[in-house]
Each structure stands twice: as C-alpha cells, then as structure tokens.
C-alpha cells in the first residue's frame, strides 16, 4: 500500500525534532552507548594528560552525549567528533556523525569538507599513535607499516559511513519524490474524476434537452389534432353519425402515427444511453462530436422530411383549419437534419395555431433558394375572439424555444412575433449547406 504525503505528515508524532518515537529512542540509545564509550576512553586520556580521572570521565560523557542531537545539528556532531579525535575518543560518535551528515540534505561541498577533515584528523592521530608504539617497541614491523596503518584506519573509519549515508540520503530523497508524485497523481485523478462527472452531467443534460424537444415535436402536433377531432366528434356524434365515424377514424390514424413516432424516438434514445455511459471516459469535445453524429444518424433514419409536408397540412385541414401552402423555387433534396428541422418548424407553428387561434386561416410559405431554405407560417386573427383555448389544449410555452434551438443549431435565423393584423408569424431561414 502506498503512503501518501498527507499520511506521512500525520505520522510525525515524535517529541521535539524527531518524526517518530522510535527515532527518539534510537538516538537516545546511541547517545547513551557513545557517552559510556567516551567516558571509558576518557580515563586513559586523563592519565596521559595529567588531569583528574573524574574530569576525563565527565568530559567523555558530555562529548558522547552530543550524538543525541545528530538529526538536528549533524555538523556540530561531526565537529565534536573531529575535536576529540586527538584524545582517541568518540569512535561511535565519529562513525554515526559522518553517516548522519552524509544522509542529510546538505550541500556536497560541506559534506566533503567535513569528511576530509575527519579523514585527515584520523590519519594524523593514527600515524602518531602507531609511531609511538613502534618507538616503545610495542610493534616491531617496518617503517612502511606506519603510513599504511594511518591511511587504512582513516579510510576505514571515514569512507564506509559517508558512502552509506550518501546512499541512504539518495534513497530517502527518491522515496519523497515518489511520494510527492503519488500525491500529484492522486490530485490529478481526483480532477479527472470531477471532470468526468461534469462531462457525464453535460451529456445527461444534452440528452434531456433533446428528449424534451423530440417529445414535444412528436406528441404536441398529433395530440393537438386528436383533441380537435375529438371535440368535433363530440359535437356531431348525434347530428351526423357518418361525419362522427370519419372523425373517429382520423383520431385513430393520428394516434397510431403518434405511437409510431414515439417508438422510433425511443429507439434513438436507447442508442443514446450508450453515449451517456461513454461520456465519462472520453474528452468533452469527443462527446459533443459523438452527440452530433448520433443526432445526425437518428435524423437520417427516423426523421420526417419535406415530402411529408402535404400530408401534414392535410391533417390540419381535416381538423377544420384553412391552410394555404405556397412553394417558391425549384424543389430539391437537402440534408436529413435540414429537412427535419424545416418540417418541425412548420409542424410546431401549425400546432400553435390549433392551440392559440383555432379556426384562423393560415398561410404556409416554403422558398427554395440557392444556398438556403426559408419557411414562414402566418395565421390571421381567429374568427371568434376568445377561441384560442376553445379546444382546451394546454401549452407549456416551449414550442418557440424548441424551434429556435433547432434553427440556430444549424446556423440559421429564427424570428417569431405578432403581426399588425392581429395574427402571428413564424419565420426561419436555414443554410442549405
């Protein structure tokens, strides 16, 4: 299991400058051993120096106890070890001090200078000591042994702790770097997770908007006509049974058409569920491209086209609306999304006439131009004031918003508003490319 930087920071529970209690116990133990060693070595030093033995013991205890602060002031520990080298004291103090110094994050020149001072000091003291022993006859080797012993002893007491300290320090820095990198990666993963949630939320919102628009376009027109025909059926059921039968047949046909379009739309929505699931795994731009591609495929496979415009107007005429269709320019085929948008604009405009101006004469104009297609649906004032809601048709107020969104999404222009004569006009221009 990886330990992050925050977990490492929470683990700093030791006293004073120690990160952990076990580090404090280790340093205390080393300081105690070093103090005992220096105190023992202080006895011959005091005798050679001609001072009281108690002074040598106290001096050794104080010098050896400096190892307690090796993590806080490693330079001071090494300097004390170098200072007591002529007294032949502080073997453990010098070795542990050099190791701690080399493992700290100090400039290399400081580590090298102090290690060199310790090396030279140890070599000089060893050289003098061995030479004195040879002069007293304690050693009977040749003169070559004196420099050999001095160099070997100095290197043996200096090089291993320094090299080990450098290795441990480099390893510690590597682990800290890896820990920081792990923290950075964890933060990046959190940011990516948040962005993935945002992408998924964006995809869900886009899907909800598209569902609402398609539901409105598919259901509103058919159901509006069904309500109009049902009201007419109720009015003529007893007076004209044959007309009532025809109206009932029209209601059934429109209901079946509405169900067919709903089934087609639900098929598109099932395909869109996969898009929403993939939204959290791909970049936002790719999600937008996939959404546009899915919408284009859905339009091409299941959307209405301009060739069905006559049937649409015929259904409104059958519901009692007087509709005048005028087509300008040479009729031609367009991209599926353009044809569907043009059809939906006319369909929604006619639905609004049924809702808000029942019985009003309506003019539908379609113009095929060189680089665009234009459509306009304009109704005259209703013949009877107050007949806007005669059929009891509800209005959510989203029809014009949906038309505008469709047209603007294709780079077109949408304008709607009341006319001077008291009617209402819906106009749209869509680029043909």
Automatic annotation (TrEMBL):
The chain crosses the membrane at residues 49-69, 75-98, 110-128, 148-170. The lineage of its organism: Bacteria, Bacillati, Actinomycetota, Actinomycetes, Kitasatosporales. InterPro entries: HATPase_C_sf (IPR036890), Sensor_HK_TwoCompSys (IPR050482), Sig_transdc_His_kin_sub3_dim/P (IPR011712). Keywords: ATP-binding, Coiled coil, Kinase, Membrane, Nucleotide-binding, Phosphoprotein, Transferase, Transmembrane, Transmembrane helix, Two-component regulatory system. It holds the Pfam family HisKA_3. Residues 168-206 form a coiled coil. Signal peptide: none annotated. This is histidine kinase. Its EC number is 2.7.13.3. It catalyses: ATP + protein L-histidine = ADP + protein N-phospho-L-histidine. It is an enzyme of class 2 (transferase). It comes from Streptomyces yokosukanensis. The keyword Coiled coil applies. GO terms for molecular function: ATP binding; phosphorelay sensor kinase activity; protein dimerization activity. It comes from the Bacteria. Residues 207-272 form the Signal transduction histidine kinase subgroup 3 dimerisation and phosphoacceptor domain.
């Amino acid at each position: 299991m990886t330990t992050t930087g925050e977990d490492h920071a929470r683990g700093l529970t030791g006293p004073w400058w120690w990160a952990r209690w076990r580090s404090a116990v280790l340093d205390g133990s080393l300081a105690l051993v070093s103090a005992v060693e220096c105190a023992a070595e202080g006895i011959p030093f005091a005798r050679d120096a001609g001072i009281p033995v108690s002074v040598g013991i106290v001096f050794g205890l104080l010098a050896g106890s400096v190892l307690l602060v090796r993590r806080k002031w490693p330079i001071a520990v090494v300097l004390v070890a170098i200072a007591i080298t002529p007294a032949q004291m502080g073997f453990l103090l010098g070795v542990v001090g050099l190791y701690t110094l080399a493992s700290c994050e100090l400039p290399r020149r400081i580590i090298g200078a102090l290690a060199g001072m310790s090396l030279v000091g140890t070599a000089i003291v060893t050289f003098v000591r061995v030479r004195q022993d040879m002069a007293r006859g304690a050693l009977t080797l040749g003169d070559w042994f004196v420099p050999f012993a001095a160099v070997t002893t100095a290197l043996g007491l200096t090089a291993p702790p320094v090299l080990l300290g450098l290795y441990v320090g480099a390893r510690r820095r590597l682990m800290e770097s890896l820990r920081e990198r792990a923290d950075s990666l964890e933060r990046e993963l959190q940011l990516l997770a948040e962005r993935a949630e945002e992408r998924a939320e964006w995809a869900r919102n886009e899907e909800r908007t598209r569902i609402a628009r398609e539901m409105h376009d598919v259901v509103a027109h058919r159901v509006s006509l069904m309500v109009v025909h049902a009201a007419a059926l109720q009015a003529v059921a007893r007076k004209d049974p044959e007309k009532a039968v025809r109206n009932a047949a029209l209601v059934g046909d429109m209901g079946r058409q509405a169900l067919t379009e709903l089934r087609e739309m639900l098929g598109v929505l099932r395909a869109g569920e996969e898009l929403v699931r993939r939204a959290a795994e791909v970049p936002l731009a790719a999600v937008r491209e996939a959404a546009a591609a899915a919408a284009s495929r859905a339009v091409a496979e299941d959307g209405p086209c301009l060739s069905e415009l006559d049937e649409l107007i015929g259904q409104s005429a059958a519901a009692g609306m007087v509709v005048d269709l005028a087509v300008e320019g040479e009729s031609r085929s367009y991209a599926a999304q353009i044809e569907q948008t043009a059809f939906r604009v006319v369909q929604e405009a006619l639905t609004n006439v049924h809702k808000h101006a029942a019985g009003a004469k309506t003019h539908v104009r379609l113009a095929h131009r060189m680089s665009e297609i234009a459509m306009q649906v304009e109704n005259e004032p209703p013949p009877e004031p107050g007949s806007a809601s005669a059929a009891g048709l509800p209005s959510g107020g989203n029809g014009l918003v949906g038309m505008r969104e469709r047209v603007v999404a294709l780079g077109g222009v949408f304008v709607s508003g009341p006319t001077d004569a008291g009617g209402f006009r819906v106009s749209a221009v869509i680029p043909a490319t």
